[in-house]
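Researcher: Here's a chain I'd like modeled. Treat it as a single chain, no partners, no ligands.
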Amino acid sequence: MFDAIAPRYDLLNRVLSAGSDVRWRRRAVERALAGHEAERPADVLDVCCGTADLALAFGRDVRTRRVAGFDFSRAMVRIGMDKAAPRRPRLAVADALRLPVRDASFDVASVAFGLRNLVEPERGIAELARVVRPGGRVAILEFFRPEGGAGARLFRWYFKNVLPRVGRWLTRGSELDAYRYLPDSVDGFATADTVGRWCERAGFESIERESFLFGSVVLVTARRQAACTVVPRREAAPACVA
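Model: Modeled as a single isolated chain. Structure tokens:
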């Protein structure tokens, strides 16, 4: 499904969010790199990187030294590799639940709009904790079902009724299932509070949440505990280039 929508994925993101997705990613970069400076740049891993928009945003920041990105969709990764950038992130195809990365090898780990697509999202967060160094940070940007208020009700109506139709029109109907999947996956996903508890169980602390668009998009950031037993490593799946 994600391979099918890859060619128009960026266009759909911009149209369906009215360009707000760019601002949300910039905010995720800002929060994730808090405390880092150009003199002490961070190593960043972006998981479920899609077409690499967030990885590229990290790469444009002078507070990063190297950026890597993994995604399960080969077509998404190929498009990300074709994007021009001053500092191109290293991208590969890999499973977010079995990252081909050594323990405690990155200062920052991020995932944007991909956590709910994992078969075991809590295990995905534990895998992020495994690869982040003590004191490092995680940034999770995700859609959640908005609760309460006229604005939230209006957005839920848009999400369920308008978004699939616009997606079908922009993709000439060939990827309609993907834009039916989007609202269904959000409705069936955990709350932002639950994701925060998953982060705590994985060994993160100082968990903060920032909401956008009537609470339908939430940025969860946290810091890896400085004194914490590293999560036991599962057998990693090999990465492959696209």
